[in-house]
Structure formats: structure tokens, C-alpha cells
């Protein structure tokens, strides 16, 4: 969508809400290390059940991590403004992303803004109920990009690593399959859209200005980002309905089922952009510096219902039981082990390469607590 004629998008109210929320989060002096089972607040969840607090706390942690990498994208190729401050942009990288969609910068900005509000709201809600918010600031230690355009104040202070990604792109065929659902066929292997990305590791952002050329190299980096974005967002799109099934309070349920679909909106938007990277005129494309190839998914041996890039809506698939008719649904939504599954998914992706053992310990306990949450307890 071309938004050049749009009026300035930021509303005062939304901006001040985010600003206030960030202040709340920033003022939370409790380190993540304090989030231990010995904390009475964690055990009681404040005014929430312990399970509900744990579900929201894991969601808040995931949103802080999402925010961290979306901010990196916004610095280099989004729209820095009061809603999403920092960075001055990398023109070469931005141009390559705009080859996929002219409004790519706007979409990056708005996705980043959404993630900031997600964690800010979740933490503020936890605090409003007397429960502990999540603060991962002590783990802001990763180098990140030093290319021109990044927020120099944040070099060496990233939580997530966008430079060594191994991307499971099988969501592409999972959402096109009419006969398999991971919840019913946990061992079925959905084919990859871009098998080189699944083999990894590849960077989704220019690491230094040396990555800005040759042309096919920086286009491949942009294409990697275009696949990283839906790969992440489809994870959120499954996480929220998976966790919602174990919420006790109707209000916590409302929070989870109201944030979750925004992740779905992100996912579908980015799935469409990824499609541009694997169709003509951009595809096929090979980065000759490392061999990374983006095939044209509309041509043999690809194409058809499993690969065609115009098919961006979910194909109905088996749901709950094969004795019931197929249904167009988010998948997977199995609730058992959902949080730990997301943590493993993000870790396997390489998003935390360079993080300390203490970081993994904290994330592991947050996920374990969320997965232990039981509806009605
Ligand atoms: Fe989010
Ligand atoms: Fe998201």
C-alpha cells in the first residue's frame, strides 16, 4: 500500500502512551535475575494467579526480544521518529528492501511500534496487578551492526543477533498444506521455501558498510530480512493462541487473544513481502559472495499450490481431528510446551548467538513457568 499521501500517522495519545510505558519499563529496577521461584510475587502473581502472571511474563519477555531486533531493522531501514526513535537509515539496504515493496520502511516502523507497545502494555498490566514485570536490560551486550545508519549509542547493547540467522522457512508450505497440521502430524516435514536460509547462517542486516556491495550481496541480505520477518511473526501468531488456552482470568485471556492476532497481521504482511523475494523480477537471485540463492518459487521445480507466491492466505487443513472437516486455522496451537517451543525456535534461529548462559537461564525459567500454567489454578 502506498502511504505517501497519508497524513502524519502518530497521534499524540499513542506517542505519550508509549513514552510513558517506556518510562515504566525503564524504571523497573528489578533485574531479570530476580525472577526466581523464590519470589513471593512470582509465586502469587500479585492480583493474578501464578499461572496467568507467568503466561504474561513470558509474553512480555518475547515482546522485549522482538522489540530489540525490530528496533535494529528500523534504525537501518525503517522510519526513525518519536514513536520509534534511533538511527538514520542505510540508503543502500533500504533501497533493496523497497525493491520488495515500496512501503517496506513504513511497515518496519509500524511493526516496531507495535512490539514496543506489546511489551510496555504487558509489563504495565503485570505491575498494575502487583506482579513483577520483565526486564532484560542486564543482557544488552551483543555487538550488532556497526554499519552507517545504526543508533551508535546501542552498538554493543543489543539483546538479539540478526547477523547469523538460520531460518526455518517451512511455514511457507505449512500454511499451504491442505493435508497436514503439525498438531496432528508432529513428525511431518514441511518443505522449505528457501533451503539455503534453513542451512544458515546468514545476516539479515548489513554488519558493516562492507556488506553494502556488491549489489546481489546486499539484495540477498534484504531478502534474508524479508524471510526473517514472517518467520518470526508466524511464531508469535502461534504462541498467543497456544498460551491463551491456559489463561484463568477472562481479562488475561482477552489480552492474549487481542495481541495474538496483531502478530498474525504482521505475519501475513511479511509473507507477502517475502514472496517478492522469490518471484520475478528479483528471483532467482544468488549472492555470489556466499552462494545463498533465492529461487523463483513460481517456476519448476517449484510452483503449484505448495509454493506459488500469490497464495498468501492459509489453506484449510485438518484441525483437532481428521474425523472433522478441514478448517482454515493458525497452526500449530498445541498448548503443551508452547513457551519452551518458542524459546527453542528462537534459539535455533541463531537470534541469541553470543548471549550469556545467565540469559538462557532466565529465559528458560520464564518459559518453564509459562508452560506450567494451568487453567483455573
Ligand atoms: Fe508482538
Ligand atoms: Fe510481532
Number of helices: 11
Largest sheet, strands/sense/barrel: 2 strands, antiparallel
Low-confidence stretches: 1-44
Residues in helix, %: 40-55%
Shape: globular
What would you call the structural class? Answer: mainly alpha
Cofactors, ions and other ligands in the entry: fe (ii) ion
Mean of residue pLDDT values = 90
Element order: H for helix, E for strand: HHHHHHHHHEEHH
- Strand percentage lies at under 5%
Number of self-contained structural domains: 1
Roughly how many Å is the radius of gyration?
20 Å
Could you tell me how far the N terminus lies from the C terminus, measured between alpha carbons in angstroms?
46 Å
Number of strands: 2
How would the blueprint of this fold be written?
Blueprint: H1 12-27, H2 40-44, H3 50-77, H4 91-98, H5 104-128, H6 171-174, H7 195-199, H8 215-244, H9 250-277, E1 285-286, E2 293-294, H10 338-348, H11 357-372
Antiparallel strand pairs: 1-2
This protein binds fe (ii) ion (2 copies).
One fe (ii) ion binds at residues 66, 115, 233, 236, 263, 266.
Amino acid at each position: 500500500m502506498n502511504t505517501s499521501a497519508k497524513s502524519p500517522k502518530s497521534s499524540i495519545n499513542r506517542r505519550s502512551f508509549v513514552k510513558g510505558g517506556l518510562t515504566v519499563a525503564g524504571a523497573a529496577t528489578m533485574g531479570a535475575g530476580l525472577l526466581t521461584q523464590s519470589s513471593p510475587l512470582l509465586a502469587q502473581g500479585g492480583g493474578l494467579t501464578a499461572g496467568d502472571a507467568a503466561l504474561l511474563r513470558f509474553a512480555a519477555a518475547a515482546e522485549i526480544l522482538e522489540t530489540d531486533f525490530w528496533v535494529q531493522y528500523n534504525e537501518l531501514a525503517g522510519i526513525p521518529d518519536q514513536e520509534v526513535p534511533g538511527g538514520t537509515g542505510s540508503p543502500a539496504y533500504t533501497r533493496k528492501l523497497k525493491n520488495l515493496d515500496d512501503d517496506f520502511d513504513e511497515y518496519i516502523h509500524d511493526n516496531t511500534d507495535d512490539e514496543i507497545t506489546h511489551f510496555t502494555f504487558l509489563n504495565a498490566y503485570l505491575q498494575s496487578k502487583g506482579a513483577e514485570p520483565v526486564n532484560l536490560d542486564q543482557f544488552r551486550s551483543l555487538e550488532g551492526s556497526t554499519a552507517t545508519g545504526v543508533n551508535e549509542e546501542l552498538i554493543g547493547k543489543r539483546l538479539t543477533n540478526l547477523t547469523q540467522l538460520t531460518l526455518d522457512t517451512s511455514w511457507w508450505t505449512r500454511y499451504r498444506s491442505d493435508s497436514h497440521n503439525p498438531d496432528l502430524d508432529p513428525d511431518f516435514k514441511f518443505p522449505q521455501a528457501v533451503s539455503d536460509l534453513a542451512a544458515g547462517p546468514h545476516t539479515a542486516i548489513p554488519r558493516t558498510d562492507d556488506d553494502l556491495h556488491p549489489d546481489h550481496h546486499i539484495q540477498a541480505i534484504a531478502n534474508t530480512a524479508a524471510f526473517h520477518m514472517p518467520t518470526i511473526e508466524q511464531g508469535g501468531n502461534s504462541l498467543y493462541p497456544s498460551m491463551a488456552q491456559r489463561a484463568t482470568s477472562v481479562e488475561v485471556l482477552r489480552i492474549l487473544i487481542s495481541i495474538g492476532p496483531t502478530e498474525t497481521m504482521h505475519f501475513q504482511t511479511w509473507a507477502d513481502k517475502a514472496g517478492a523475494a522469490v518471484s520475478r523480477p528479483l528471483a532467482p537471485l544468488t549472492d555470489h559472495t556466499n552462494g545463498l540463492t533465492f529461487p523463483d518459487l513460481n517456476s519448476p521445480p517449484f510452483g503449484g499450490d505448495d509454493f506459488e507466491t500469490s497464495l498468501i492466505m492459509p489453506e484449510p487443513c485438518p484441525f483437532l481431528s481428521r474425523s472433522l472437516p478441514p478448517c482454515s486455522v493458525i497452526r500449530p496451537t498445541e498448548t503443551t510446551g508452547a513457551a519452551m517451543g518458542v524459546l527453542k525456535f528462537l534459539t535455533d534461529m541463531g537470534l541469541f548467538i553470543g548471549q550469556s548462559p545467565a540469559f538462557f537461564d532466565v529465559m528458560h525459567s520464564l518459559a518453564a513457568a509459562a508452560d506450567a500454567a494451568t487453567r483455573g489454578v
